[in-house]
Amino acid sequence: AADPPDRLALVLGTEGDGLSRRTVEGADVVVTIPMAGGVDSLNVAAAGAVAAWALRRP
Questions:
Q1: What is the 3-state secondary structure (H, E, C) of the chain?
Q2: Any idea where the tRNA/rRNA methyltransferase SpoU type domain is (predicted)?
Q3: Closest by alpha carbon to 50, among 37, 6, 41?
Q4: Which residues of 3-29 are buried (b: 16+ CB within 10 A; e: fewer)?
């Protein structure tokens, strides 16, 4: 994965619907968290923790 930029806005969507089309279209980069093992979604706190972990700097 590439290093995150110096300035970053992390926008999290709802469990069911995610982000609005307008929000997604206005983003420079969109990432998703793949689900496995019958899990349909993560709550926003868990998704935020996953994103923060993925963005950590060594």
A1: CCCCCCCCCCCCCECCCECCHHHHHCCCCCCCCCCCCCCCCCCHHHHHHHHHHHHCCC
A2: 5-52
A3: 41
A4: eeeeeeeeeeeeeeeeeeeeeeeeeee
